[in-house]
Amino acid sequence: MFETDTQDVAQRAFTGDLPPEVRVEELIARAHRRYAGLDEGRLADYIPLLEQADPGWFGLSLVSVDGTEHAAGDTEVRFSIQSISKAFVFALVCEAMGHEQVHDRVGVNNTGLPFNSVIAVELNDGSPMNPMVNAGAIATTALMPGGTPAEQWEHIRSGLSRFAGRPLELDGEVYRSERKANQRNKAIGRLLESYGRLDTDPLDTVDVYTRQCSLLVTATDLAVMGATLADGGTNPRTGERVVSAEVARDTLSVLASCGMYERSGEWLFEIGLPAKSGVSGGIVAVSPGKGAVGTFSPLLDLAGNSVRGQRACAYLSRSLGLSLFASAAHPVSQKVS
Fold this sequence. Notes:
CATH topology of the largest domain: Beta-lactamase
Structural class: alpha+beta
CATH architecture of the largest domain: 3-Layer(aba) Sandwich
Strand content: 5-15%
Number of helices: 13
Order of helices and strands: HEEEHHHHHHHHEHHHEEEH
Number of domains: 2
Distance between the termini: 53 Å
Oligomer: single chain
CATH superfamily of the largest domain: DD-peptidase/beta-lactamase superfamily
Number of strands: 7
């Protein structure tokens, strides 16, 4: 179980808007100071380039649904989005294909197994189970509109750019590094094909999926992307509707139950927010109707989640009242005698 280290933080039960801006700014700065010196965890090593990251990097950003940003630390350092892309590609595919088709083809239930499990596919008659594990993400990417892999890739790149509110670029070095090490994903693609879960060439689909994981983002980008889901699918910076409110709702539902892999239950219990992590050290955590937190710190725990990012999200969830489950008792009205 991950440590949240927030026993001494007074939990704020807050069901309306965020606190005043000066208070949010103060707590963001405090969270950054509190965990910047934490040196637990290790760098990702299964993708060679990720092992070259500076272990001292730590960026923390909160973007509200009105577009206001509060940030501290290395919020403009660019890193590959990795598995966080799964959430936003899922949203784009739901927007294009519809709720039922994606539900039937991919599924929405937690596997309870590691994100790259082959056993989970076999145990469930070829079902990827949910779009936040690798099998489900590959099946989701296969559903992206486009007559060719190049067209599918462009739909993904432009769609995630609309979520971020700016053009996102591919990190070619990360892409080439991952392409050399993605044999397991290729095997998962072939396995899905054998069960009739893919209508596209599995190797082409895995290549598109590898590209989507190699897009460069910042902690602030993640916060804007999450805030777009928090605001019913409308980007708070650009005002563009990226996906419908219904799709934003569906995406957050899947993130709540599956976004942190086999640790999703613990995350929801401790932090209470739909969230997604990536092995480059990013986390996006969304508080519907309020905004989103984007964090970046490349030191990871054994589950592949950023250690500093988890601690900061837990601290902010409690101190800002972001949790879906935090509420205050409704005042009892006095009866007039």
